[in-house]
Design a protein that fits this description.
Keywords: Glycoprotein, Leucine-rich repeat, Membrane, Repeat, Transmembrane, Transmembrane helix. Its main location: membrane. The chain is α/β, with parallel strands linked by helices. It is built from 22 helices and 27 strands. It has 3 domains: 233 residues, no CATH class; 127 residues, no CATH class; 217 residues, Ribonuclease Inhibitor (Leucine-rich repeat, LRR (right-handed beta-alpha superhelix), Alpha-Beta Horseshoe). It is flat, with a radius of gyration of 33 Å.
């Protein structure tokens, strides 16, 4: 627990007001405490203030001038140092102002005088006083917990009780602390003659244009945008570090601690701990464990060799030395499992949150001989920059995740002998060479294989064996060459396949459509070409597909009008999720999830999604050479949320039934050869955030109303026959609007076959779209916004 420290990072990164508060405090400390002379003045001013207050009877103190008379400089991440700074600022507030006033008159330079004057103006605002008292209250709740967790000898039970109390206090502050916080701030302002904010007035940050802020009252801003928001951020931080499941695990583990003559021993809790390992403890084993625990504790309390042990590691080692591991085999098994930082719990998924509780590098006081079962290696990306050959973990490793390091060299073939491996993540390293062919055979074991962004070369391995258990495969950003291996069809459980940013040579692997569980397919920027459809008679092509990114390739030809007909998962708004995606949902209920990332283009921006997934259904076919009409079968994909067909050669009109896409958030049809009017029916798209039809052959009046009033010129440029807002070109013939067919009469203008098929077209599109920028047709990354 010694390395686990709560930090302000989560709050500071997510609320600019808190950032501003601590920047201002740092400036005050630097200016006021910049010299011994100023510190002496601060002490003098504080001394006189204390005497004055005592004379007025506001405080009673026998310590007099021994009160705090110095400002504490805040540290970068420690809660305690920030907490001390806030207390000092509140206590010394009038004295700080007096010293700043002195500096404005006799500062060494004009710059010092000016800075002191600006600080005085900033400090004497309701905004600063509220933030000051609010953060002091918030950090006062978490300060004791922070201090406790930094003590190496901290008792786990006591620490977890502090966590529980801290969560309760934060919830109470949110539920019933607003009125007292506002009253406290108001009284402080009145005492120091600072103007009190009118909560019913409209909020306006001093020095900022009103146009740049949404209209809200001061009450809404301070209560919702600041008070509630920061408390919620801190509660989220605590929950992420101390989930209910993780806290329970630690409390159960503490019952094994031999300190103070096994004072923490609790048989019932240890039985509950064992139940978290169903693969290791059967019902019969639990009965044996129950009996062994009764004898075990009596033996421990009456055996001198077990006196004065320091920690569970010493206990396990002493049990081996005295052969107690054979006598109490079930107890010893439980101790071994606990010593692997409850990693090997019921499933691999549970291991991730258990490791996040510790939040440090893997460490253990025991050697391999003490923990020869189910060890999990997990090195977090932010804590390590290991530059060396990839080490081989123990044979029974279940999870080996060493992403975002600096490992070099080739993948050693010995990695394929890890038969218990379920997750292998070597992504974001500097490894090189060719992939060992045995990795394909290894796919019979791991559920997830991620080698993304390394320096491998050559061809992708072609030995995926029948019966493969592989569910995730990410070999993107590697620059593999050659054909995609057809042995991928042996991976019947594959749900996520990301092979983007490579240099493959060949046609679209239409045979991937036979993978009935495939939900995510990313082949962007992979130098593939030709048509993307095989036999149109196959009835099971991509039945579970929810996300597909084929952008920036050389795919061509017309898309069959029934091409999307078999994409059944996108045909309903009530879609299901994969087993891996289910773990992301269950994590919100205290369970755990796979630490998997995937990069997708979302509303014009390349975004890395942690876990799977925060967007739902999207199709990206941009930057290719498709031609002909947009396939009619798109109308069946009612769950679709994003459609990007930009930078192709599609022709024909934009159908009015796009207006029935009630969930549409983004639609990019730019850089094509579409013609005729933009249907007025698109105004019904209430969630539309991005709309691009630039550089086509569209004509007539641009629709008005709702979301269309928010789009700028860039959505329409390159269509000289378009008119109306936001374009500067006015429509000369207003009668043309009246001749547009009414929604109820649109079907009369269609052929009978069209009338039926297009009634339900496009019932929901959203997610990853790109924005076209070039004014001429050019192959490349037009519209691809990357970050």
């Amino acid at each position: 627990m010694g390395q686990l420290q709560l930090t302000l990072v989560a709050v500071e990164k997510n609320n600019s007001k808190i950032v501003s508060l601590f920047v201002l405090l740092t400036n005050v400390v630097n200016v006021v405490g910049g010299s011994c002379k100023r510190l002496d003045r601060l002490r003098e001013q504080q001394a006189s203030k204390v005497i004055e207050i005592l004379g007025l009877g506001e405080i009673i103190s026998g310590r007099g001038l021994n009160q705090e008379t110095s400002l504490i400089k805040p540290g970068d991440t420690r809660w305690g140092s920030h907490y001390g700074t806030l207390i000092s600022m509140i206590t010394l507030f009038p004295s700080v102002l007096d010293v700043l006033e002195i500096i404005t008159e006799d500062g060494a330079t004009p710059e010092q005088k000016c800075e002191a004057d600006m600080l005085i103006n900033s400090l004497q605002t309701f905004d600063f006083i509220f933030s000051l008292h609010f953060m002091k209250k918030l950090l006062g709740i978490t300060n004791e917990l922070s201090q406790a967790l930094q003590r190496k000898d901290q008792d786990i039970v006591n620490a977890m009780n502090l966590v529980r109390i801290c969560k309760m206090q934060l919830q109470n502050l949110r539920d019933s602390g607003w009125d007292s916080m506002l009253t406290q701030t108001t009284l402080f302002c009145k005492k120091h003659e600072i103007e009190v904010c009118n909560m019913d007035a409209m909020f306006l940050l001093p020095g900022r244009s009103r146009r740049k802020y949404p209209k809200m009252t001061n009450l809404h801003y301070y209560r919702v945008e600041l008070f509630y928001d920061v408390i919620d951020l801190q509660r989220t931080e605590l929950e992420s570090r101390f989930s209910e499941t993780g806290t329970k695990l630690l409390l159960f583990m503490a019952c094994l601690n031999p300190n103070n003559s096994f004072a923490a021993f609790d048989k019932n809790k240890l039985i509950q701990l064992a139940r978290l390992y169903p693969n290791d403890f059967s019902d019969m084993d639990l009965e044996i464990l129950n009996d062994q625990l009764e004898t075990y504790i009596l033996d421990m309390l009456n055996s001198s060799e077990f006196f004065n042990l320091n920690g569970i590691g010493d206990l396990a080692q002493k049990m081996v030395e005295t052969k107690r591991d054979k006598v109490f085999s079930m107890v010893y098994l439980l101790i071994k499992l606990a010593l692997t930082l409850p990693i090997s719990t019921a499933t691999v998924e549970r291991s991730f949150s258990a490791m996040k509780i510790v939040k440090n590098r893997i460490c253990n006081k025991m050697g391999d001989q003490w923990m020869n079962d189910n060890f999990v290696a997990y090195i977090e990306k932010e804590n390590n920059q290991l530059q060396r050959q990839l080490p081989i973990p123990p044979q029974n490793t279940v999870v080996y995740q060493v992403s975002h390091n600096n490992f070099i060299g080739e993948i050693p073939p010995l990695i394929c002998e890890l038969k218990s491996l379920q997750l292998l993540d070597l992504s974001f390293n500097n490894m090189s060479g060719t992939l060992p062919s045995c990795l394909g055979i290894l796919s019979n074991s791991p559920v997830s294989l991620n080698l993304r962004r390394n320096n491998f070369h050559g061809k992708m391995m072609n030995a995926f064996m029948p019966g493969s258990l592989l569910e995730n495969l990410d070999l993107s950003e590697i620059r593999f060459m050659g054909q995609l291996p057809r042995s991928l069809t042996n991976c019947a459980n594959l749900e996520i396949l990301s092979l983007g940013d490579n240099s493959f040579d060949g046609l679209f692997p239409f045979w991937l459509g036979s993978l009935t569980k495939l939900q995510v397919l990313v082949l962007r920027s992979s130098k593939l070409y030709g048509p993307i459809q095989g036999s149109t008679t196959v009835s099971s092509q991509f039945p579970k597909l929810r996300i597909i990114d084929l952008s920036n390739n050389n795919f061509s030809s017309q898309l069959h009008q029934n091409y999307f007909q078999t994409w059944q998962a996108m045909s309903s708004e009530n879609f299901g999720v994969s087993s891996i995606m289910e773990s992301e949902i269950s994590s919100k209920n205290g369970e755990n999830s796979w630490p998997y990332t995937l990069t997708l283009t979302h509303k014009g921006v390349r975004t890395e999604y942690i876990h799977i997934l925060t967007i739902d259904m999207s199709i990206d076919l941009s930057c290719n050479h498709f031609e002909g009409k947009i396939p009619q079968s798109l109308q069946d994909l009612r769950g679709l949320q994003a459609l990007n067909l930009s930078n192709n050669h599609f022709t024909g009109r934009i159908f009015p039934y796009l207006g029935d896409l009630k969930n549409l958030e983004a639609l990019d049809l730019s850089q094509n050869e579409l013609s005729r009017e933009i249907p007025q029916q698109l105004v019904r798209l209430g969630f539309l955030e991005i709309f691009k039809v630039s550089f086509n052959h569209l004509e007539g009046r641009i629709p008005k109303g709702k979301q269309f009033d928010t789009f700028d010129n860039n959505s329409y440029i390159g269509n000289p026959q378009l008119c109306g807002q936001p374009l500067s070109k006015e429509c000369q013939d207003d009668l043309k609007v009246s001749r547009l067919p009414a929604i109820s009469n649109v079907s009369e203008s269609l052929l009978p076959s069209e009338r039926i098929d297009w009634i339900i077209i496009f019932c929901g599109v959203g997610s990853g779209l790109v924005v076209g920028r070039s004014a001429h047709k050019e192959k490349g990354q037009m519209g691809k916004a990357t970050s």
